[in-house]
C-alpha cells in the first residue's frame, strides 16, 4: 500500500522563456488558477552546455522541471501538466475517461512531436556547425510539421471545452512561429482562426516567448 503526500503549498518551475514545453506547463497553471503558487525560474539548457541545477533534478538536463519541497522533482512537461491538473477542484484539462480523454492526450502527443520536430529542424539549419548539417534530415522533419498542420486542420476539436491538447498545440504553434520555422497559416483557415483566438487567452498573454538558445562556441556554429 502506498501513502500519498499532500501537495506542497509552493512549487518551483525550472522554466525557459523560449521553451514551448515549459510554456505549456505554465499556461496550464494559469488556466487552472494555480500560477500564483509557482515560482518560475529561468534556466538556460542545451545538450552542449550542461546546466548542473537542471541535471540535479532531471537526469535528462531538460526543462521544464517542477520542484516540490519534500517530494521528488517532476518532469517532463506531460507529467507536470498531469500533476498540476490534480491540484485544483475545477473542470479537469485531462478528461478522466472516454474518447474525450484520448483526444486530449493524442492531440498533446502531436503537439509534443511538432515541437520536437521544430527543434530538430533548428539543429539542421542554425544550431549545428554548418559542415555537420544534414539537409535530408531537415527535410524529413519539415515534412512531419507540414503533415501535422494538415492533420490539425482536419482533426482538431476546435469547439469543445479547452483541454490539455489545445494548450499543447497553441504553445507549440506559437513557438514554431516565434522561431520562424515552416508556417501553418497557408490553406489552413480553421486552424488559424482557432489559434489566433486561443492566443488572446490571459494564460497565453501572461507567458510571452523571448530569448535565445545558447549552445556554446562550437567551431563553425551558426547563430542560434
Ligand atoms: N519532452 C520534454 C522536452 C523538454 C525539452 O526538450 N526541453 C528543452 C528546452 S525547449 C531542453 O531543455 N533542452 C535541453 C537539452 O536537450 O539538453 C518535455 O515535454 O518537457
Task: Provide tags for this entry.
47% helix; globular; 224 residues; mainly alpha; disordered C terminus; three-stranded mixed β-sheet; 8 helices
Shape: globular
Alpha carbon gyration radius: 18 Å
CA distance, first residue to last residue: 49 Å
Largest sheet: 3 strands, mixed
Sketch the topology as an H/E string, one letter per element: EHEHEHHHHHH
Briefly, what is this?
The protein has eight helices and three strands; from the N terminus they run E-H-E-H-E-H-H-H-H-H-H.
Report on this structure.
- This protein has 224 residues and is mainly alpha-helical.
- The protein is built from 8 helices and 3 strands; from the N terminus they run E-H-E-H-E-H-H-H-H-H-H.
- It has a 3-stranded mixed β-sheet with strand order 2-1-3, with helices on one face.
- The longest helix is centred in the middle third of the chain and has 30 residues, at 98-127.
- The protein is globular.
- The model is unreliable at 219-224 (pLDDT under 50).
- Bound molecules: glutathione.
- Glutathione binds at residues 16, 19, 21, 45-47, 61-64, 76-78, 112.
Amino acid at each position: 500500500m502506498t501513502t500519498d503526500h499532500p501537495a506542497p503549498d509552493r512549487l518551483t518551475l525550472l522554466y525557459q522563456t523560449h521553451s514551448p514545453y515549459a510554456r505549456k506547463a505554465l499556461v496550464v497553471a494559469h488556466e487552472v488558477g494555480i500560477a500564483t503558487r509557482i515560482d518560475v525560474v529561468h534556466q538556460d539548457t542545451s545538450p552542449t552546455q550542461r546546466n548542473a541545477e537542471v541535471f540535479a533534478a532531471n537526469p535528462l538536463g531538460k526543462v521544464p522541471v517542477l520542484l516540490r519541497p519534500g517530494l521528488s522533482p517532476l518532469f517532463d512537461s506531460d507529467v507536470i501538466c498531469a500533476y498540476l491538473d490534480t491540484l485544483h477542484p475545477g473542470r479537469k484539462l485531462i478528461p478522466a475517461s472516454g474518447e474525450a480523454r484520448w483526444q486530449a492526450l493524442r492531440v498533446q502527443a502531436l503537439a509534443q512531436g511538432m515541437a520536437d520536430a521544430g527543434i530538430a529542424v533548428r539543429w539542421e539549419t542554425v544550431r549545428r556547425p554548418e559542415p555537420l548539417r544534414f539537409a535530408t534530415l531537415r527535410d524529413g522533419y519539415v515534412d512531419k510539421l507540414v503533415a501535422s498542420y494538415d492533420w490539425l486542420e482536419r482533426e482538431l476539436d476546435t469547439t469543445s471545452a479547452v483541454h490539455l491538447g489545445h494548450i499543447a498545440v497553441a504553445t507549440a504553434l506559437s513557438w514554431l512561429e516565434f522561431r520562424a520555422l515552416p508556417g501553418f497559416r497557408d490553406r489552413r483557415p480553421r486552424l488559424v482562426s482557432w489559434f489566433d483566438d486561443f492566443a488572446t487567452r490571459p494564460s497565453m498573454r501572461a507567458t510571452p516567448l523571448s530569448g535565445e538558445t545558447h549552445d556554446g562556441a562550437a567551431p563553425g556554429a551558426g547563430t542560434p
